Amino acid sequence: MNEDFSKKIDKNNIPTHIAIIMDGNGRWAKSKFLPRTVGHKAGVEIIREVVKECSNLGVKYLTLYAFSTENWKRPKLEVDTLMGLLVKYLKNEAKELHQNNVKVTAIGFTDALPELCRVELENIKELTANNTGVNLNLALNYGSRSDIKNALIDIVNDSKSGKLDISDIDDNTLKNYLSTKSIPDPDLLIRTSGEQRLSNFLLWEVAYSEFYFADIHWPDFNKFELQKAIYTYQNRDRRFGGLK
């Protein structure tokens, strides 16, 4: 039975930014003797519930690891299914997300996505650009190492051209060259399916994030599990390397 943590949560201590590694769709399907593609379809349904609960709780930013740069290595049928589900989600959810004041953005090398994905992504970004509710940030064809590498290349080039003085480079400099420059670092990182690794996700940004590992697969995640993760986060002592 799902425990309702909504009354236990301190509404004045809601994490500003939650990042989620949505893991376990394939294993969820396998456990039910179903094709992996069915697991991905079930996972899409959970996104709707989680976005809605984040809106209800007052979370400002929600970043979802939807497709990594490494996911291209998966079987073509699975990749094609994921791209198709992305198109369907963006197209079908656009109106409701807009009505609920959700702003949709994306990080990653989206130029490499199939054309239909790029079109629907640009459509929903344009439609929701002025919304002021939760910022749903989709990590698509995203890899943190590549993002950091590209940031360093840009810093070197700008230094050579005189746009940037190398003596002025600090942590904020690199932050401002990353694809995540316009959003705050995550307060809480959630990963489902029981795995406890980052998988090349927001390596720079999660330096002081609180981690929460759920022992259930993503299709079994729901608003109650999200509440539980936030409640656990609120009972952590965040010191950011200092003392309290």
TrEMBL record:
Its cofactor is Mg(2+). Signal peptide: none annotated. InterPro entries: UPP_synth-like, UPP_synth-like_CS, UPP_synth-like_sf. Gene3D superfamilies: Decaprenyl diphosphate synthase-like. The active site is at residues 23, 71. Keywords: Magnesium, Metal-binding, Transferase. Substrate binds at residues 24-28, 36, 40, 68-70, 72, 74, 191, 197-199. It is an enzyme of class 2 (transferase). GO terms for molecular function: ditrans,polycis-undecaprenyl-diphosphate synthase [(2E,6E)-farnesyl-diphosphate specific] activity. It comes from the Bacteria. Transmembrane segments: none annotated. Binds 2 magnesium ions per subunit. This is Isoprenyl transferase. It comes from Metaclostridioides mangenotii.
